[in-house]
Specification:
Blueprint: E1 5-9, E2 14-18, E3 55-57, E4 71-75, E5 89-92, E6 95-99, E7 103-108, H1 121-138, E8 146-153, E9 165-171, H2 176-192, H3 196-207, E10 211-214, E11 218-221, E12 232-236, H4 248-269, E13 274-279, H5 284-287, H6 291-299, E14 303-308, H7 315-320, H8 329-338
Antiparallel strand pairs: 1-2, 1-6, 3-4, 4-7, 5-6, 7-9, 8-9, 8-13, 10-11, 11-12, 12-14, 13-14
Helix pairs in contact: 1-4, 2-6
Length: 341
């Protein structure tokens, strides 16, 4: 089997993963089919249908890879990246390439068919704790520079299975999006001597037009320059560059906020497909004490983005990088607040 490969477009300064193995994903699993018509490899009793579990929440006397679990983490059977390989880049004529090195894991969020937002808050917090445990473990591999955690819900969001799950991908480099955002936050910190994320939360709570939900630990906003209809972002009040610094209390507060806004979104938009993405800090901010790493720790803050899939990107967006949104975030936030009296 051919080794996956990462290739860089020198004009856009973006990377693409080429992975032939992804072509073998099971196309017969369609979200629209009834539960009786689709084999669910993530269901209890089907543990042999997944690779052996890496981590699971199960009773102490419960045997690994058997029923009885609350959630499981397993390697992705169809990984975008593979653990074998070297992190060094290589020239390919005028282009750059490197081995498709990384890790790709699946967090099976529940043993039943309920979506994440309908599970008890304590269970959602436990799933978030699984994210944290896997990030901490993957951080030990010094070849990895960034860990992306995301959730695809519904076929329009890229999900091929309806059973609630999220995914964790470790990368051998920091994505350009994260690098650029960290750079902008660092410049703000250097120029003004203040944390951009703290200023953001102060401003949004003063204006109070785009806040959808808040509790003692988190604030959920429809961003000022929302790219997509009903886009939301969840920010921690306790600023930290890395999600893996979350305490148990933080995770419970985050679970409450996440569940509250997903329920609102489902009521307002009639259960849309959506993506959840964790925008975490680069791993060098954890491992190193260089001026660059210290600046990231001082200026960046992890957060979650929730993107309902209510449309598709077209030629203008692809050709310019601009997005067209037909609803102001103030109106979106008001609708999401009012959908639950």
């Amino acid at each position: 089997m051919q080794q996956p490969e990462l290739r860089r477009d020198p004009l856009r300064d973006t990377w693409t993963i080429f992975s032939e193995e992804r072509r073998r994903r099971p196309s017969e699993y369609h979200f629209q089919q009834s539960a009786d018509a689709v084999f669910d490899p993530f269901a209890p009793g089907h543990e042999k249908s997944t690779p052996p579990e890496i981590l699971a929440l199960r009773p102490e006397n419960s045997e690994a890879n058997s029923p009885g679990w609350k959630w499981r983490v397993v390697p992705n059977r169809y990984p975008a990246l593979r653990i074998e390989g070297r992190p060094e880049g290589r020239p390919d004529g005028i282009f750059d390439a490197m081995d498709g090195l990384g890790a790709h894991e699946v967090v099976i969020e529940t043993c039943d068919s309920l979506p994440l937002e309908k599970l008890p808050v304590a269970h959602v917090a436990s799933v978030l704790g699984a994210w944290k445990q896997r990030i901490l473990d993957l951080t030990k591999d010094v070849r990895f520079q960034y860990i992306c955690v995301f959730k695809n819900h519904g076929p329009l969001a890229g999900a091929t299975l309806s059973h609630a799950h999220s995914q964790i991908v470790a990368l051998p480099l920091v994505p350009e999006l994260i690098r650029r955002m960290c750079t902008n936050a660092a410049q703000y910190f250097r120029w003004k001597g203040r944390h951009w994320f703290r200023d953001l939360l102060l401003h949004e709570e003063q204006v109070n037009k785009r806040v959808v939900f808040e509790n003692s630990g988190f604030v959920v906003l429809c961003p000022y320059a929302s790219r997509f209809l009903f886009e939301m972002a969840i920010y921690p009040r306790r600023l930290s560059a890395n999600f893996q610094t979350c305490t148990e209390h933080d995770l419970n507060q985050l679970a409450e906020a996440l569940q509250a806004v997903l329920l609102r979104m489902n009521l307002a938009l009639e259960n849309p497909a959506y993506n959840i993405t964790l925008l975490n800090g680069p791993l060098n901010a954890v491992r190193e004490a260089t001026p660059e790493a210290l600046l990231i720790r001082d200026s960046w803050c992890w957060h979650l983005e929730i993107t309902p899939r209510l449309g598709t990107l077209a030629g203008f967006e692809l050709g310019t990088g601009f997005h067209i949104n037909t609803l102001l975030p103030e109106d979106a936030a008001r609708h999401l607040r009012e959908v639950i009296g």
